């Protein structure tokens, strides 16, 4: 399965759009609620009795809690709007209308795309029908309420359009969230793919290393009766059992690792794996300048550590060539009691994680997998004096 995290330009622009940040913070909601509440109170108090101002406040003040208690805020706003109608406020104040639009947006953000659009279409149709009926069938078209509708109540005429725009904004926000979720899933899939691929490569190398050692055990056990004259039958039988056990172990290991090896072009089992002895050759192949410093007395290291150390240095040089061309690379091999510590640093521009690359690229994933597979540790990031620094410790025991 091929996984990609590349988004189209339109998707990137959509992902960058974040209107919600403007109105999402608690402080912003509190300020908006306060302004609308005062405006609604003053507008209703100017033409109606004091009791009518209570539902006006109830229809606007709950916006302050629309983020923490969205459904409670929307419910209180609706109750306040109904209370205004019962109080004789036939034409809703502009502040209450704005509060209703914001509440509508709050609902849409929490509904599925299909339900949100059906709700938008239904409410929009009802509003258009209500306004049309009021204009067509008003008993007195020249009454104060009709003139108010024509001169000051245009918000009711454009409200369906406002609701549509609100639905579009909510849909954009929903799409942005979905894009972020897909991107996160893709990055996680890439990380897992890179880790699995590196584990498979490590498994192949470990198979070759262990297979060679076990094969030698089997061969030596089988030839022991011929190279060690005078063995009794019991000793010969024990050598035969050792050889049979070694052969069985080889067969079982090939069976267990066969699936991992199937996805990667494999070299012949007799092909030698590179180790630290070939480090000068690897450095000579690098395009830029490389300094090698060996700290401590070199000791013989296990073959698995030898191969992994070489591969980690090889990948680090590749990363330096790709991400910091021309940079000077310093490699330090420190032989410590029971531990081989590698330190690879360059004087390039330093880490710059790219979109779509987990942990800055697949190479770091592979290096980390190699170190952890041996029971070691691994770190990578900006160096203390700039550039990029990779450090890993590989146990020798």
UniProtKB/TrEMBL annotation:
Tagged with keyword NADP: no
Transmembrane feature ranges: 21-42, 78-108, 115-138, 153-170
GO cellular component terms, A-Z: membrane
UniProt xrefs under InterPro entries: HATPase_C_sf, HATPase_dom, Sensor_HK_TwoCompSys, Sig_transdc_His_kin_sub3_dim/P
Signal transduction histidine kinase subgroup 3 dimerisation and phosphoacceptor domain ranges (all copies): 198-262
Keywords, comma-separated and alphabetical: ATP-binding, Kinase, Membrane, Nucleotide-binding, Phosphoprotein, Transferase, Transmembrane, Transmembrane helix, Two-component regulatory system
EC nos: 2.7.13.3
Name of the protein: histidine kinase
Keyword set includes Lipid metabolism: no
A GO MF term: ATP binding
């Amino acid at each position: 399965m091929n996984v990609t995290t590349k988004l189209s330009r339109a998707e990137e622009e959509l992902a960058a759009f974040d209107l919600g940040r403007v109105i999402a913070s608690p402080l912003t909601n509190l300020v908006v609620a306060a302004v609308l509440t005062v405006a609604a109170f003053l507008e209703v108090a100017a033409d109606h009795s004091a009791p009518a101002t209570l539902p006006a406040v109830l229809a606007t003040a709950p916006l302050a809690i629309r983020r923490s208690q969205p459904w409670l805020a929307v419910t209180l706003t609706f109750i306040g709007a109904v209370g205004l109608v019962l109080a004789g406020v036939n034409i809703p104040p502009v502040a209450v209308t704005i509060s209703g639009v914001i509440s509508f947006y709050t609902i849409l953000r929490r509904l599925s795309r299909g339900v949100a659009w059906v709700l938008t279409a239904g409410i929009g149709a009802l509003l258009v029908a209500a306004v049309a009926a009021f204009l067509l069938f008003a008993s007195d078209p020249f009454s104060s309420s009709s003139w108010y509708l024509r001169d000051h109540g245009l918000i009711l005429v454009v409200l369906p359009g406002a609701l549509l725009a609100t639905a579009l904004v909510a849909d954009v926000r929903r799409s942005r969230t979905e894009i972020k979720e897909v991107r996160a899933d893709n990055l996680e899939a890439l990380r897992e793919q890179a880790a699995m691929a590196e584990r498979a490569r490590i498994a192949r190398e470990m198979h070759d290393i262990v297979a060679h050692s076990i094969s030698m055990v089997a061969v030596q056990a089988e030839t022991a009766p011929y190279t060690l004259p005078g063995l009794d039958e019991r000793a010969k039988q024990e050598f035969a059992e050792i050889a049979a056990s070694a052969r069985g172990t080889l067969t079982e290991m090939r069976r267990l690792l066969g699936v991992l090896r199937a996805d990667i072009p494999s070299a012949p089992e007799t092909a030698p794996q590179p180790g630290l002895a070939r480090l000068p050759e690897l450095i000579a192949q690098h395009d830029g300048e490389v300094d090698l410093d060996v700290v401590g007395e070199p000791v013989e290291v296990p073959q698995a550590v030898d191969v992994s150390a070489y591969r980690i240095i090889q990948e680090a040089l590749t990363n330096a060539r790709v991400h910091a061309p021309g940079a000077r690379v310093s490699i330090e091999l420190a032989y410590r009691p029971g531990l081989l510590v590698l330190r690879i640093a360059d004087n390039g521009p330093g880490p710059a994680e790219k979109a779509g690359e987990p942990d800055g690229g697949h190479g770091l994933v592979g290096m980390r997998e190699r170190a952890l597979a041996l029971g070691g540790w691994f770190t990578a990031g900006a160096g203390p004096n700039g550039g990029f620094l990779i450090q890993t410790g590989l146990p020798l025991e």
